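Because showing beats explaining, we think one record worth quoting, sequence and backbone structure tokens together, and here it is:
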Amino acid sequence: MLRQNRLFEIMQLMRDGQTHRAEDIASRMGVTPRTVYRDMDTLAASGVPVSGARGVGYRLADVISLPPLTLTDVEFEALNLGLAIAGEVADAALKSAALSLAEKIDAVLPERITAEAEAWKFAVYPFADTARGIRHIATLRAAIKARQKLRLTYTAQSGTVTTRRVRPLMMEHLGRIWLLTAWCELRSDFRTFRLDLIESAEALPELFTDEAGKSLAEFQAQKP
């Protein structure tokens, strides 16, 4: 059983409000008690209200419990945006709750998504970068749909600032980090831009059509 699936099953098991011994959980999940101890530490660190101790047992505190949900990509994007906004407000309690909720979601995401997102994490605050990129989303979405070129002012992680004319092809997110894939006329190649590093995005009057070597299909064909 994959780890994220096991964590989910443990939470489901403990929703009955009863105290469960680590040995019993381990037997049910097909793992060792030591693994269950680590799982409980992970759940607690993710904000799940687990109480108890080794040798005694574990239970969930009284909380609002939701049934399992299946989210579409767009719904997950909306959830991430909402958390980013809540994470940047001045209300300390709301900011803390947004961080706790994000950690709970991260704890049960598929390993592929969490592994990709891990490479984009930041040392200061997990929402600030997402919030900075939100302001560009409407412009970028509209340009992708209309197949309209953009002028971007972009600050690389090195601090270098450049102005680019691009053909926007696709937006996607890795965890809470939003990315724009485009054909960059400055580099004459495909480039991926982090939305939080885009200083300005201006729609140009020039439209574009697919050309050999510059289309989204060809970019995706290059991906391993």
